[in-house]
Design goal:
single chain; 325 residues; alpha+beta; Gyrase A, domain 2; 6-stranded mixed sheet; 5-stranded antiparallel sheet; globular; GcvT/YgfZ/DmdA; TrmE/GcvT-like; GCVT N-terminal domain-containing protein
């Protein structure tokens, strides 16, 4: 409480409780009451100003995967440029599928994977929790590293492959669109009362792009992000591009070569156009499906079913065989 408020409040309370008539007819008391109200209003205004300043400062802090929800106008932009977008918000094609597939082998492509799920695991017990719930050894990883891991049923049947980034205060899991809701629900169900773990679906609060092809490293170098080139799969770092936060990781959902870029919807259009200006060819979901098959990337409901366990699905790189030893 401010000095003005602390001084005025007891005076007014005393006058009201002991002499209502005196308060109504005493000019001095009325002036005191008005002055206190004016000062209180001024103090409230100052407090609001302080809160607004705090919000501005918080928004400028390092990116920690909690950007505010912002209207997603990126799809409007690509639609205006000729892309075909489904009712579910998935870019199906840029009418260049053959060119894009060729660029994957000989140049560089960029894919909008924003419809893929993104799950944020936070809390002090997040590492041990994910270590117990998936096939990878999370306990051997540290901040800035990453891995692939598999979510399985109680009978070890495959649910989905997840691409994981270890961050300072959270772990980001990128999963297939079809499984995001079920995995989020499953993880929340397995949190015990004493576990310090929080699971959030942040898909709508973020956008995800994948950069692939033999020339993807050149694009990164041109964007002053070359320090990630040559780093192990899953390595991730935070950057500030034109005042907007972006997290970049080595590798992506389709390939260990290339990069993934996570940003807010507000920055998505700018990041996308920057990648195109560097020669990246846009690739839609129709071409992505062909690419997924030729790259041997299994998908839920297709190659990943209850008929096969993780080893039968050939997901050796996503399994730790020495967990618990």
């Amino acid at each position: 409480m401010t000095t003005a408020t602390a001084t005025a409040t007891p005076c007014v309370a005393h006058l009201v409780s002991h002499s209502t008539a005196r308060l109504q007819h005493s000019r001095a008391a009325l002036l005191l009451h008005q002055n206190a109200a004016f000062r209180t209003k001024k103090t409230t205004k100052n407090n609001l100003s302080s809160r607004n300043t705090s919000s501005t400062i918080a928004a400028a802090l390092p990116f920690e995967l909690s950007p505010p929800p912002i209207d997603h106008d990126f799809l409007d932009s690509v639609t205006a440029e000729g892309a075909k977008v489904s009712e579910e918000g998935i870019i199906e094609t840029f009418e260049n599928d053959d060119e894009a597939l060729d660029a994957f082998d000989n140049g560089v492509v960029v894919m909008d994977l924003s419809h893929f799920g993104r799950i944020r695991a936070s809390g002090d017990d997040r590492i041990q929790f994910l270590h117990n719930q998936t096939t990878a050894n999370f306990e051997c990883l540290s901040e800035g590293q990453g891995c692939e891991t598999v979510f399985v049923t109680p009978t070890a049947r495959t649910i989905d492959i997840a691409y994981a980034w270890i961050m300072k205060k959270a772990v980001l899991l990128m999963v297939s669109p079809e499984t995001c809701g079920n995995i989020t629900e499953m993880l929340n169900k397995y949190i015990f009362f004493a576990d310090k773990v929080e699971i959030q679906d942040i898909t709508k609060q973020t956008c995800l792009f994948a950069l692939s092809g033999p020339k993807s490293s050149e694009v990164m170098a041109n964007l002053n992000l070359g320090d990630l080139v040559g780093q192990p799969y899953g390595t991730n770092r935070h950057y500030n591009v034109n005042g907007m936060p972006i997290t970049v990781g080595v590798g992506n959902i389709i390939s260990e070569e290339g990069f993934s870029l996570l940003t807010s919807p507000a920055a998505a259009d700018s990041v996308w156009k920057t990648l195109l200006s560097q020669g990246a060819i846009p690739l839609g979901s129709n071409a992505w499906e062909k690419l997924r098959i030729t790259q041997g990337r299994p998908a839920p409901g297709k190659e990943l079913t209850n008929d096969f366990n993780v080893l039968e699905a050939g997901l050796w790189n996503s399994i730790s065989l020495n967990k618990g030893t």
